[in-house]
């Protein structure tokens, strides 16, 4: 502590009392050099860390950092060169072990050296921008050992050799591999990539190219895919065990390219085992594997999808154009449903519900269902069959499932209005013959149709149900007000509102006396409460239950059509009747009458009449008698109910014509609607808009639309623009 | 100008100013005289009980003019007169028309007919004349279409000279097809556009998806089938 005299005080840094010993640096350095030697020779225990640190510290302090650093470099390099030689000397498999051992040694040594030289690391090195000790140690190792000419290539080929061995099924020392690879990574990512990864990927590509070639020649598709999957998983696992995680995506790309992408088409189209076969045989596992593998490569999924689509369309086309299969409409539709179910399963189980595949499925179905223009009719017949008997005893949920499936087919139809027409016809027959299995099921389907197509589509159908209900009430009222009639024949009348029911030509025949009197009473009763309405009897749509006693006293109750009743009742007053007599007495039109007589005289088990001659067809000169020998197991015998059937050619033509006629006003209404709001529109846009508006019912034909436009022009709803011929104008 | 004293017996007072076809106003005395001559010419051919020229009168006029009754120039005359009813010229129409032509005698009328042809052929007038030709055939009240036969004749008359090959072919088609028994004005006007715009006989630039009437779509299809 100095006294406080006013002198110029200079505080100087504490200087070590050092003698300017020119050999100071040399001496200090050799101490350190010796230490490094000892460290490398595993003799570090005898050293004093503190002393060495101090020495290094002093050197840097006295500005001998340069000497220290370059000395370090030289010493370390020399040692590494020796190490390199000893590694080179190692034989065979011991090479890697030796390398690994020496690397560990080097790291330990480096650690110690770095600790000793820490002062230099923190001061001299940053100031002079030299490489820090640790990094220096790694670089020197890299340059002198790894990149030494004798070691570099040998190292690489050993590593690749091991990988190859593992690929061929041998067990290798994974720990050793991991260490070596880690060493390369520690030396820098470029070292890892250049000295290992790049060549590794190249060799792997070659390997897999060869392997895939071998497999594809001898395996079927399913097996090949199994092998590919195996290899892929193997490589992934290998990466997690001893490679840089960043290599995973690179090696999987190689496998994907060589094993999958390069052989994609061949696999998919492989005979007897390719995609189509898998689809046909419902091979979910194989399909799922294919999906998972192919989704890894570009265009993989789209390839699967395209092949599936064209296969589906092919099958579908065959289905709808095969004349054999078309003989039974119900079978036909069932097969469509089965096909859809099959592919729904495939997509959900093997293709993980991929939406694009769903879309492909839908578009394929839409394509081929509409190839056959009878599809709407057949679907309606299918529904009819189900609602008549198919759904008997089926639980409510299952009913819903079946109806939903039907709706799904319905959605694919382009000509929904044709379906509507047939559905109405079939529904009418079901309602009037009382042959519907479940009212709830009927209503449920109507609701579904309403949800799909709107109120307009189903309003008439609902009207039909209403009429049935109202008729029931009417009948109750009728009998309530005519109690004297309860003893006679029971009349059940369904009053149908003309607009809601399918139009039928109404031809009345001559009813037997008992019936016609009753009918007249009903007519006056009804018109009494509903003035201003007109009733016309639809005798071609009714049924009758009549009790008959035959020659040997056998009694039966016959359920027949109204026409058949008229014919049979004649025989109460005559034993023998000729065809002409029957025709005259009943007034039934010829073709209906022939069918009617045929069903009663020529069908086994229903032959309540006898015909002379006994031919199959009804001739104009035939004579009819009651068949006194008629027998049947059952008391109640059903003869010819009015069942909905596939239409005959002329009927089909007629229905189609009616549909076409109905479309005309719909097209016109659409045109007027559009023009009213747009005022002026050009030709192409009108066609497009009209088509869009009518899409939910049918596919509008541009020529038909044009015809309607011209008709509207003629009737002054529209006009053409004077200057631009393509424009139409709405005339208010 | 003070109102003129009318010397004519049957003609109603004509209050519109009279101009000749080149737009110059004629002096009143000349007007009266011109009008007289026109009226006299009118009366030569008019059916006195009807008060207008009837088909017979037109026939007579034609023979005097030296043209055939079915000559297109008579149709052009009708157009110029803005005649409403086929086969008849009212006095009003006669007067207005002849004044517009600037003629008041038969000989002048004869000469004017050839000028009339040129006038009609001017693009600004042609379409008007063409549309008129159709309307002229609508003889009944509320009639909107003309039967095929008459249409064929009319096409021949009106377009035959300028578009001979198209018209011949089109007429052939119209006679064999069954879809249309009559032609309406919309279809008629499109016949002209067809002739003007579509190259013939290859019909290369015809596009059926455009706004052409269906009858022409069918015609083109028929043509293409014929030539394939």
Automatic annotation (TrEMBL), chain A:
This is Cullin-3A. SUPFAM superfamilies: Cullin homology domain, Cullin repeat-like, Winged helix' DNA-binding domain. One of its GO terms (biological process) is ubiquitin-dependent protein catabolic process. PANTHER family: CULLIN. GO terms for cellular component: cullin-RING ubiquitin ligase complex. It holds the Pfam family Cullin_AB. Belongs to the cullin family. Coiled coil: none annotated. Residues 374-601 form the Cullin family profile domain. One of its GO terms (molecular function) is ubiquitin protein ligase binding. It comes from the Eukaryota. Transmembrane segments: none annotated. PROSITE patterns: CULLIN_2.
Automatic annotation (TrEMBL), chain B:
InterPro entries: DCN-prot (IPR014764), DCN1-like_PONY (IPR042460), EF-hand-dom_pair (IPR011992), PONY_dom (IPR005176). It comes from the Eukaryota. Pfam families: Cullin_binding (PF03556). Coiled coil: none annotated. It comes from Gossypium raimondii (Peruvian cotton). Gene3D superfamilies: Cullin, PONY binding domain, EF-hand. This is Defective in cullin neddylation protein. GO terms for molecular function: cullin family protein binding; ubiquitin conjugating enzyme binding; ubiquitin-like protein binding. Residues 1-10 have a biased composition (Basic residues). Neddylation of cullins play an essential role in the regulation of SCF-type complexes activity. GO terms for cellular component: ubiquitin ligase complex. Residues 11-25 have a biased composition (Low complexity). Residues 33-224 form the DCUN1 domain. PROSITE patterns: DCUN1 (PS51229). GO terms for biological process: protein neddylation. Residues 1-25 are annotated as: Disordered.
């Amino acid at each position: 502590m100095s006294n406080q005299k006013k002198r110029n005080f200079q505080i100087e840094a504490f200087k070590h009392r050092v003698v300017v010993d020119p050999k100071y640096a040399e001496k200090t350095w050799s101490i350190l050099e010796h230490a490094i030697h000892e460290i490398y020779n595993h003799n570090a225990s005898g050293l004093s860390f503190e002393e060495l640190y101090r020495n290094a510290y002093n050197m840097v302090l006295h500005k001998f950092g340069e000497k220290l650093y370059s000395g370090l470099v030289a010493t370390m390099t020399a040692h590494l060169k020796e190490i390199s030689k000893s590694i080179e000397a190692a034989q065979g498999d011991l090479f890697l072990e030796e390398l690994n051992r020496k690397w560990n040694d080097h790291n330990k040594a480096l650690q110690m050296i770095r600790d000793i030289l820490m002062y230099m690391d923190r001061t001299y090195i940053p100031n002079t921008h030299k490489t820090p000790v640790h990094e220096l140690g790694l670089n020197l190792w890299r340059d002198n050992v790894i990149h030494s000419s004798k070691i570099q290539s040998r190292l690489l080929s050993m590593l690749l050799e091991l990988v190859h061995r593992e690929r061929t099924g041998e067990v290798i020392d994974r720990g050793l591999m991991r260490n070596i690879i880690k060493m390369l990574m520690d030396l820098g990512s470029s070292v890892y990539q250049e000295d290992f990864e790049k060549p590794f990927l190249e060799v792997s590509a070659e390997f897999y190219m060869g392997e895939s070639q071998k497999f594809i020649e001898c395996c079927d598709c399913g097996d090949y895919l199994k092998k590919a999957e195996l290899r892929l998983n193997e490589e992934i696992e290998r990466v997690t065990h001893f490679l840089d995680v960043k290599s995973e995506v690179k090696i999987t790309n190689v496998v994907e390219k060589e094993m999958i992408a390069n052989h994609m088409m061949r696999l998919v189209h492989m005979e007897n085992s390719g995609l189509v076969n898998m689809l046909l045989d419902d091979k979910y596992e194989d399909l799922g594997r294919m999906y998972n593998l192919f989704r890894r490569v570009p265009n993989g999924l789209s390839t699967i999808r395209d092949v599936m689509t064209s296969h589906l369309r092919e099958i579908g086309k065959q289905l709808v154009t095969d004349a054999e299969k078309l003989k039974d409409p119900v079978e036909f539709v069932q097969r469509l449903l089965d096909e859809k179910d099959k592919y729904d399963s495939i997509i959900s189980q093997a293709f993980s519900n991929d939406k694009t595949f769903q879309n492909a499925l839908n578009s394929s179905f839409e394509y081929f269902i509409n190839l056959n223009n009878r599809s709407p009719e057949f679907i309606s017949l299918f529904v009819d069959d189900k609602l008549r008997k198919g759904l008997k005893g089926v639980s409510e949920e299952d009913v819903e499932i079946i109806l939903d499936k039907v709706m799904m087919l319905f959605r694919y139809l382009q000509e929904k209005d044709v379906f509507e027409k047939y559905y109405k016809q079939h529904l009418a027959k079901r309602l009037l013959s009382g042959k519907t299995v479940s009212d709830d099921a009927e209503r449920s389907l109507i609701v579904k149709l309403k949800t799909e197509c709107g109120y307009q589509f189903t309003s008439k159908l609902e009207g039909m149900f209403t009429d049935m209900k109202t008729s029931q009430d009417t009948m109750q009222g009728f009998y309530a007000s005519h109690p004297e009639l309860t003893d006679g024949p029971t009349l059940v009348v369904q009053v149908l509102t003309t607009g809601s029911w399918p139009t039928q030509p109404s031809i009345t025949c001559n009813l037997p006396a008992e019936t016609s009197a009753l009918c007249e009473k009903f007519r006056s009763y009804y018109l009494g409460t509903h003035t201003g309405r007109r009733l016309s009897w639809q005798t071609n749509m009714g049924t009758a239950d009549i009790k008959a006693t035959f020659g040997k006293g056998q009694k039966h109750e016959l359920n027949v059509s109204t026409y058949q009743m008229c014919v049979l009742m004649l025989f109460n007053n005559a034993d023998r009747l000729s065809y002409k007599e029957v025709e005259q007495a009943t007034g039934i039109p010829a073709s209906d009458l022939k069918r009617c007589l045929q069903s009663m005289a020529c069908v086994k088990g229903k032959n309540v009449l006898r015909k002379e001659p006994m031919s199959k067809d009804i001739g104009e000169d035939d004579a009819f008698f009651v068949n006194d020998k008629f027998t049947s197991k059952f008391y109640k015998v059903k003869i010819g109910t009015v069942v909905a059937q596939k239409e005959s050619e002329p009927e089909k033509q007629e229905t189609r014509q009616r549909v076409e006629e109905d479309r005309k006003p719909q097209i016109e209404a659409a045109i007027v609607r559009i023009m009213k709001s747009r005022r002026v529109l050009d030709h192409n846009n009108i066609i497009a808009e009209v088509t869009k508006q009518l899409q939910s019912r049918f596919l509008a034909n541009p020529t038909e639309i044009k015809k309607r436009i011209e008709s509207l022009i003629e009737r002054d709803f529209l006009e053409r623009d004077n200057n631009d011929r393509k424009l139409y104008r709405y005339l208010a | 100008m003070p109102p003129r004293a009318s010397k004519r017996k049957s003609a109603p007072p004509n209050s519109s100013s009279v101009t000749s076809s080149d737009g110059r106003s004629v002096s009143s005395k000349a007007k009266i005289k011109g009008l007289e001559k026109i009226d006299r010419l009118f009366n030569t051919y008019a059916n006195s009980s009807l008060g207008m020229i009837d088909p017979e009168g037109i026939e007579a006029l034609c023979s005097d003019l030296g043209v055939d009754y079915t000559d297109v120039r008579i149709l052009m005359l009708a157009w110029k007169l803005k005649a409403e009813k086929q086969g008849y010229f009212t006095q009003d129409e006669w007067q207005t028309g002849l004044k517009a032509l600037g003629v008041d005698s038969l000989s002048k009328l004869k000469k004017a007919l050839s000028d009339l042809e040129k006038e009609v052929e001017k693009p600004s007038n042609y379409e008007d004349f063409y549309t008129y030709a159709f309307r002229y055939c609508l003889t009944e009240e509320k009639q909107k279409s003309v039967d095929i036969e008459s249409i064929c004749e009319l096409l021949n008359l009106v377009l035959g000279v300028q578009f001979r090959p198209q018209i011949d072919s089109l007429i052939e088609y119209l006679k064999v097809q069954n879809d249309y028994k009559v032609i309406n004005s919309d279809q008629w006007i499109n016949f002209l556009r067809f002739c003007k715009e579509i190259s013939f006989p290859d019909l290369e630039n015809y596009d059926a998806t455009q706004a052409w009437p269906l009858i022409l779509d069918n015609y083109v299809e028929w043509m293409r089938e014929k030539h394939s």
